[in-house]
Amino acid sequence: MNIAVVCAGGNGERMKTKENKIFLTIGDKPLIYYTLKTFSEYDKVDGIIITAGRENIGRLEELIPMYGIEKVLSVDEAYRTRQESTYHVIEKLKKLNLPTESYLLIHNAVNLFVRHSELDECLSAAQRFGAGLLGFEATDTVKIVKGRDHFIDHTPNRASLWIAQTPQIIRFDIAVKAFEIASERGIVATDDTTLVEAIHEQVKFVSCSRENFKITYPQDLELASRILTKRVKESNCWYA
């Protein structure tokens, strides 16, 4: 049984809008619609759990049937961090006695343009290695700085740098172990597979299109609108 955990609890401060960015629109539909529809139509996902701020739960529960989105099991209240929110989803799922070969597909609510073919590749990697995530190679030079003065500490080799995106797919028993140990040891990460790395489990990086990016800034909306128009024109679907 494969469960998509759609993380919609962020406040989107960098978008500089009064409402949560998941409700901003492109193509006359809210951003969250495209993400939920992508996973709803993906045949290897059995259920979807959304984590969202308390103030957004009612609106999401109205939106789901309005747009004919299926497979949503629940909309759960998000905690202070994405890590805490996902951990509570895992604790909830533990009570369901999921089959051994179950996987969590943990996904940013505003990564709209992951394709089903990319989900297939990432899931296949997770099935082989225990965990996988989508992303792409860094094209810019990255500088590591230290302190508030931002003097450069060192410059890592760009050839080994990748930009992490989502979903991050983890076999359920590994996810349980990773999040429990993180909770016990006070390990904090902004990335789910970092917790898997911390318990010395393998994580496979799977290359995806640069169109699978997290909408963060106002200018990203214009880019997302162009991507949507192009994809619908090409195949009448943004996730094919």
Features:
alpha/beta, 240 residues, two-stranded antiparallel sheet, globular, 24% strand, Spore Coat Polysaccharide Biosynthesis Protein SpsA, Chain A, 7 helices, seven-stranded mixed beta sheet
Summarize the SSE layout with pairings.
Blueprint: E1 2-8, E2 25-26, E3 29-30, H1 31-40, E4 47-52, H2 54-66, E5 72-77, H3 82-94, E6 103-108, H4 116-129, E7 131-137, E8 144-146, E9 151-154, E10 162-171, H5 172-185, H6 192-198, E11 204-207, H7 218-235
Parallel strand pairs: 1-4, 1-6, 4-5, 7-11
Antiparallel strand pairs: 2-3, 6-10, 7-10, 8-9
Helix pairs in contact: 3-5, 5-6
Give an overview in words.
- It contains 7 helices and 11 strands.
- It is of the alpha/beta class and 240 residues long.
- The protein has a 7-stranded mixed beta sheet, sandwiched between helices. Strands 2-3 form a two-stranded antiparallel ribbon.
- A hairpin with a 2-residue loop joins strand 2 and strand 3.
Whole-number count of domains: 1
CATH topology: Spore Coat Polysaccharide Biosynthesis Protein SpsA, Chain A
Uncertain residue segments: none
Level-1 CATH class name = Alpha Beta
* Beta-strand content bin: 15-25%
Kindly name the structural category: alpha/beta
Look at the structure and name the CATH superfamily.
Spore Coat Polysaccharide Biosynthesis Protein SpsA, Chain A
Average pLDDT for all residues: 95
**Mind telling me which CATH architecture this is?**
Alpha-Beta Complex
Largest pleated sheet: 7 strands, mixed
Helix content range of the residues, please?
Answer: 25-40%
* Helix-strand string: EEEHEHEHEHEEEEHHEH
Number of strands: 11
End-to-end C-alpha gap: 22 Å
The gyration radius over C-alpha positions equals 18 Å
